[in-house]
Protein backbone atom coordinates (compact mmCIF):
# COMPACT_ATOMS: atom_id res chain seq x y z
CA UNK A 1 0.00 0.00 0.00
CA UNK A 2 2.81 2.39 0.87
CA UNK A 3 4.43 1.91 -2.56
CA UNK A 4 1.10 2.71 -4.19
CA UNK A 5 0.80 5.92 -2.21
CA UNK A 6 4.30 7.21 -2.88
CA UNK A 7 3.58 8.62 -6.37
CA UNK A 8 0.45 10.37 -5.05
CA UNK A 9 2.34 11.84 -2.10
CA UNK A 10 5.09 13.04 -4.43
CA UNK A 11 2.62 14.76 -6.76
CA UNK A 12 0.85 16.46 -3.87
CA UNK A 13 4.16 17.62 -2.42
CA UNK A 14 5.19 19.05 -5.80
CA UNK A 15 1.91 20.95 -6.08
CA UNK A 16 2.28 22.32 -2.57
CA UNK A 17 5.89 23.34 -3.20
CA UNK A 18 4.85 25.16 -6.35
CA UNK A 19 2.07 27.02 -4.53
CA UNK A 20 4.46 28.14 -1.77
CA UNK A 21 7.43 29.14 -3.93
CA UNK A 22 6.86 32.86 -3.41
CA UNK A 23 9.11 34.77 -1.03
CA UNK A 24 7.47 34.85 2.38
CA UNK A 25 7.29 37.96 4.54
CA UNK A 26 6.17 37.34 8.12
CA UNK A 27 5.99 41.06 8.88
CA UNK A 28 3.66 41.59 5.95
CA UNK A 29 1.66 38.55 7.11
CA UNK A 30 1.14 40.14 10.52
CA UNK A 31 -0.53 43.11 8.85
CA UNK A 32 -2.78 40.79 6.83
CA UNK A 33 -3.91 38.60 9.73
CA UNK A 34 -6.90 40.68 10.84
CA UNK A 35 -9.29 38.30 9.09
CA UNK A 36 -7.71 35.32 10.89
CA UNK A 37 -7.49 36.46 14.50
CA UNK A 38 -11.25 36.59 15.05
CA UNK A 39 -11.20 32.77 15.21
CA UNK A 40 -7.59 31.59 15.35
CA UNK A 41 -6.46 34.25 17.84
CA UNK A 42 -8.98 33.36 20.56
CA UNK A 43 -8.04 30.43 22.84
CA UNK A 44 -10.56 27.56 22.67
CA UNK A 45 -12.78 29.47 20.24
CA UNK A 46 -15.47 27.17 18.93
CA UNK A 47 -16.93 27.12 15.44
CA UNK A 48 -20.66 26.44 15.21
CA UNK A 49 -21.17 25.92 11.45
CA UNK A 50 -21.18 23.68 9.52
CA UNK A 51 -20.03 21.55 12.48
CA UNK A 52 -19.31 22.36 16.11
CA UNK A 53 -15.63 22.08 17.05
CA UNK A 54 -12.74 24.18 18.32
CA UNK A 55 -11.00 26.00 15.52
CA UNK A 56 -7.53 24.56 14.90
CA UNK A 57 -4.39 26.00 16.42
CA UNK A 58 -2.25 27.34 13.57
CA UNK A 59 0.55 29.24 15.32
CA UNK A 60 3.61 27.02 14.93
CA UNK A 61 2.14 25.09 12.03
CA UNK A 62 4.38 24.62 8.98
CA UNK A 63 4.10 27.44 6.45
CA UNK A 64 3.95 25.10 3.45
CA UNK A 65 1.02 23.29 5.01
CA UNK A 66 -0.83 26.56 5.71
CA UNK A 67 -0.40 27.60 2.06
CA UNK A 68 -1.55 24.17 0.91
CA UNK A 69 -4.63 24.29 3.13
CA UNK A 70 -5.59 27.82 2.06
CA UNK A 71 -5.14 26.84 -1.58
CA UNK A 72 -7.40 23.82 -1.08
CA UNK A 73 -10.11 26.03 0.47
CA UNK A 74 -9.78 28.49 -2.39
CA UNK A 75 -10.11 25.75 -5.01
CA UNK A 76 -12.97 24.05 -3.19
CA UNK A 77 -11.03 20.85 -2.46
CA UNK A 78 -11.78 21.65 1.17
CA UNK A 79 -15.40 22.61 1.72
CA UNK A 80 -15.99 25.06 4.53
CA UNK A 81 -18.10 28.17 3.80
CA UNK A 82 -16.18 30.59 6.03
CA UNK A 83 -12.72 29.40 5.06
CA UNK A 84 -13.68 29.25 1.39
CA UNK A 85 -14.80 32.89 1.48
CA UNK A 86 -11.63 34.02 3.26
CA UNK A 87 -9.30 32.04 1.02
CA UNK A 88 -11.06 33.34 -2.09
CA UNK A 89 -9.97 36.87 -1.14
CA UNK A 90 -6.28 35.97 -0.85
CA UNK A 91 -3.57 36.24 -3.46
CA UNK A 92 -0.75 33.67 -3.53
CA UNK A 93 1.48 36.32 -1.94
CA UNK A 94 -1.06 36.89 0.85
CA UNK A 95 -1.08 33.16 1.58
CA UNK A 96 2.71 33.00 1.63
CA UNK A 97 2.97 35.96 4.02
CA UNK A 98 0.25 34.72 6.38
CA UNK A 99 1.84 31.28 6.44
CA UNK A 100 5.24 32.72 7.34
CA UNK A 101 3.69 34.81 10.10
CA UNK A 102 1.85 31.93 11.74
CA UNK A 103 4.77 29.52 11.44
CA UNK A 104 6.99 31.96 13.36
CA UNK A 105 4.35 33.25 15.78
CA UNK A 106 4.81 31.12 18.93
CA UNK A 107 7.85 32.28 20.86
CA UNK A 108 7.80 29.48 23.44
CA UNK A 109 7.84 26.53 21.05
CA UNK A 110 9.98 23.64 22.23
CA UNK A 111 10.86 20.82 19.80
CA UNK A 112 9.24 17.54 20.73
CA UNK A 113 11.13 14.28 21.25
CA UNK A 114 11.21 11.83 18.31
CA UNK A 115 8.65 9.56 19.98
CA UNK A 116 5.48 10.53 21.89
CA UNK A 117 5.95 10.77 25.64
CA UNK A 118 3.07 8.38 26.22
CA UNK A 119 2.21 5.49 23.99
CA UNK A 120 -1.35 4.74 22.91
CA UNK A 121 -3.37 1.83 24.28
CA UNK A 122 -2.96 -1.30 22.16
CA UNK A 123 -6.28 -0.90 20.26
CA UNK A 124 -5.40 2.70 19.33
CA UNK A 125 -1.88 1.66 18.33
CA UNK A 126 -3.44 -0.84 15.93
CA UNK A 127 -5.69 1.86 14.47
CA UNK A 128 -2.73 4.21 13.96
CA UNK A 129 -0.90 1.40 12.22
CA UNK A 130 -3.96 0.56 10.12
CA UNK A 131 -4.28 4.18 8.98
CA UNK A 132 -0.47 4.44 8.55
CA UNK A 133 -0.50 7.88 10.21
CA UNK A 134 3.20 8.02 11.10
CA UNK A 135 4.19 7.45 7.46
CA UNK A 136 3.30 11.07 6.68
CA UNK A 137 2.96 12.87 10.02
CA UNK A 138 6.05 11.41 11.72
CA UNK A 139 6.48 9.08 14.67
CA UNK A 140 5.69 11.88 17.14
CA UNK A 141 2.90 13.29 14.89
CA UNK A 142 4.71 16.64 14.80
CA UNK A 143 7.57 15.93 12.38
CA UNK A 144 5.94 15.35 8.99
CA UNK A 145 7.98 13.83 6.21
CA UNK A 146 7.02 16.75 3.99
CA UNK A 147 6.41 20.28 5.21
CA UNK A 148 3.17 20.45 3.23
CA UNK A 149 1.80 17.89 5.69
CA UNK A 150 0.45 19.25 8.99
CA UNK A 151 1.72 18.81 12.50
CA UNK A 152 -1.03 17.01 14.43
CA UNK A 153 0.27 16.37 17.95
CA UNK A 154 -1.74 18.26 20.55
CA UNK A 155 -4.21 19.70 18.04
CA UNK A 156 -7.79 19.96 19.34
CA UNK A 157 -9.22 16.43 19.32
CA UNK A 158 -12.68 17.53 18.23
CA UNK A 159 -11.20 19.35 15.25
CA UNK A 160 -9.09 16.32 14.32
CA UNK A 161 -12.20 14.14 14.44
CA UNK A 162 -14.18 16.52 12.21
CA UNK A 163 -11.26 16.69 9.77
CA UNK A 164 -11.00 12.91 9.57
CA UNK A 165 -14.72 12.59 8.91
CA UNK A 166 -14.45 15.20 6.16
CA UNK A 167 -12.14 12.94 4.14
CA UNK A 168 -14.93 10.34 4.04
CA UNK A 169 -17.69 12.81 3.15
CA UNK A 170 -18.99 12.83 -0.41
CA UNK A 171 -21.54 15.06 -2.10
CA UNK A 172 -21.97 17.57 0.73
CA UNK A 173 -21.65 21.18 -0.52
CA UNK A 174 -20.47 22.49 2.86
CA UNK A 175 -18.40 19.64 4.34
CA UNK A 176 -15.71 17.47 2.81
CA UNK A 177 -12.07 17.27 1.82
CA UNK A 178 -10.75 15.90 -1.45
CA UNK A 179 -7.36 14.32 -0.82
CA UNK A 180 -6.54 10.92 -2.34
CA UNK A 181 -3.93 10.06 0.28
CA UNK A 182 -6.08 10.87 3.31
CA UNK A 183 -9.15 9.41 1.65
CA UNK A 184 -7.33 6.12 1.29
CA UNK A 185 -5.96 6.21 4.82
CA UNK A 186 -9.27 6.77 6.60
CA UNK A 187 -11.63 5.17 4.12
CA UNK A 188 -12.15 2.01 6.16
CA UNK A 189 -12.24 3.59 9.61
CA UNK A 190 -15.45 3.83 11.61
CA UNK A 191 -16.53 7.04 13.33
CA UNK A 192 -15.67 5.50 16.70
CA UNK A 193 -12.19 4.57 15.46
CA UNK A 194 -11.56 8.06 14.10
CA UNK A 195 -12.61 9.53 17.43
CA UNK A 196 -10.14 7.27 19.27
CA UNK A 197 -7.31 8.33 16.96
CA UNK A 198 -8.21 12.00 17.37
CA UNK A 199 -8.38 11.79 21.14
CA UNK A 200 -4.97 10.13 21.41
CA UNK A 201 -3.17 12.49 19.01
CA UNK A 202 -4.88 15.46 20.63
CA UNK A 203 -3.62 14.37 24.05
CA UNK A 204 0.05 14.61 23.04
CA UNK A 205 2.39 17.55 23.77
CA UNK A 206 2.25 20.07 20.97
CA UNK A 207 4.32 22.60 19.07
CA UNK A 208 1.07 24.31 18.09
CA UNK A 209 -0.40 27.27 19.93
CA UNK A 210 -3.30 29.69 19.92
CA UNK A 211 -1.61 33.05 20.40
CA UNK A 212 -4.09 35.62 21.64
CA UNK A 213 -4.04 38.70 19.45
CA UNK A 214 -5.73 42.04 19.60
CA UNK A 215 -7.79 43.41 16.74
CA UNK A 216 -6.40 46.87 17.54
CA UNK A 217 -2.75 46.73 16.54
Descriptive notes:
There is one protein chain. The chain contains eleven helices and four strands. It is mainly α and 217 residues long. It has a single domain (2-202), classed as Cytochrome c-like domain (Cytochrome Bc1 Complex, Chain D, domain 2, Orthogonal Bundle), CATH 1.10.760.10. The strands form two sheets. The chain has a two-stranded antiparallel ribbon. Strands 3-4 form a two-stranded antiparallel ribbon. A hairpin with a 5-residue loop joins strand 1 (46-47) and strand 2. Helix 4 crosses helix 5 (81-88). The chain is globular and about 45 Å long.
**CATH architectural category:** Orthogonal Bundle
Tally of separate helices: 11
Strand percent estimate: under 5%
Q: Major sheet, described briefly?
A: 2 strands, antiparallel
Q: Return the average pLDDT rounded to an integer.
A: 90
**N-to-C order of helices and strands:** HHHEEHEHHHHHEHH
Low-pLDDT stretches are 14-20
Supply the CATH class. Answer: Mainly Alpha
Q: Tell me the CATH topology.
A: Cytochrome Bc1 Complex, Chain D, domain 2
Amino acid sequence: MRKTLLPIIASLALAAATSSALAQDAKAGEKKAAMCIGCHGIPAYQASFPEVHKVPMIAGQGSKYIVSALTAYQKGDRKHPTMRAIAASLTPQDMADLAAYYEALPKDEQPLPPKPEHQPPAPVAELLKKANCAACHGDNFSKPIDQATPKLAGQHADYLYVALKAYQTQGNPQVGRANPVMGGMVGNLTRAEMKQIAQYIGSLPSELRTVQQSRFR
